[in-house]
Amino acid sequence: MAIEVRIPTILRNLTDGAKAVDGKGGTLDELFADLEARHPGLRARLVDEKGLRRFVNVYLNDEDVRFLGGLGTVVADGDTVTVLPAVAGG
Prior knowledge:
The chain has helices at residues 28-38, 42-46, and strands at residues 3-6, 20-23, 47-48, 51-52, 56-60, 63-64, 80-85. The protein is of the alpha+beta class. It has a single domain (3-85), classed as Roll (Ubiquitin-like (UB roll)), CATH 3.10.20.30.
């Protein structure tokens, strides 16, 4: 099994148009490193030197990872990670 990562439309150019990609790792950080190996540039769009980028929301099985441990959040086979760009406006 693997971890399914759902990719927003704006980042699908980095996944050859795929709506979802599979990855592996024990933490969210390891998962993003695994994805970067196959989809160069993806990690930089999600993470900066401080951690998760401010305008990117990441959910593990519908739970916001910022409340679960950020990049240190434990992930496992069968989990679903959803990446969503934050929407702002007025």
